[in-house]
Design a protein that fits this description.
By secondary structure, the chain is α/β, with parallel strands linked by helices. It contains 14 helices and 12 strands.
Length: about 375
Amino acid sequence: MKVPFGKPFIVGKELYNIAQAVFNSQLSGDGLFTKKCHQWLEAQLHCNKALLTHSCTAALEMAAILFDIQAGDEVILPSFTFVSTANAFVLRGAVPVFIDIRPDTLNIDERLIEQAITSKTKAIVPVHYAGVGCDMSTIMDIASQHKLWVVEDAAQAIFAKYKNQYLGTIGHLGCLSFHETKNIISGEGGALLINDESLMQRAEVIREKGTNRSQFFRGEIDKYTWVDIGSSYLPSELVAAFLYAQLENTEKINDKRQQLCQLYFQQLLPLQSKGFIKLPELDASLANGHIFYLMTNSLAERTRLIDFLKKQGIHAVFHYVPLHSSPAGLKFGRTASQMSVTDEVSNTIVRLPLYYEMSEEQVGIVVNTVLRFFGIR
């Protein structure tokens, strides 16, 4: 294809770091590079503790265990999100309670949260879509008033901010993704950000298969043993070695992606002014350039546009099938609001190609092809 949707990349010392991990004779988790990643995340994001995981899904599953989610508990979240956001809690027997999203940010509509709370509600899971922050002040106020846990699904949001705080560091827990489709990549990978000190020690145990192994290696106990439930959530040291090189270049990577988003926005603005499409509301100072999308006026038009781009060698995609209408969502969850915005966005959103090594020329190719589709050129 002329322009792929995304593309993995090397930006620094990724391969050198992997070689160093091999020479250090430790390929299993929690070696030198894992510790470096933890230190970097804690220092740069200003969170109490960071723990690498093998995926953001794993971080969400750890959150569900840390919140002591039990069968019959309810967790409030948007339907417009990836399946892991709900599945992590369904695995513990919880009922995902879906509410609608805001039309401006495509994030959970904080005005609908309180009406979804019942005596069974245990947690709220805001998802920062496209690296744009949810209204965390309102969400944290609601959680405090009703004594609920909050875990931020910040899979798309590394180094993006809400007001003056990094996303993922505001709720009791935050979950990051380093999947190859994200800004900062390690192939697969994730991190759990622990902002509530009361959860720190148990998080280490859960991550280490339910053992107090971390305390043993710090010399706090003379042997380690099975003390709680848990699983193997550690990434290998090779993953951490690759990731650390990416983390060192986070600002550079995000700056490039923000520039590409601004190019898209400026060049597609005439289409919005003519009513052909709707563009995202960009705030480059807070968002991280993770996704650039446009919305068409109908599902049929969206389908034709994606097909037209594909024929020109441009890979554009739609995004989530709403969880509330999916087979598993219908089986395990329930809705607590009308889902009109979610349904409309799901039917009309188009994600355009965006990746670190993308050139301004390639942005121009995509834009010109979109303009041609709408008969502007």
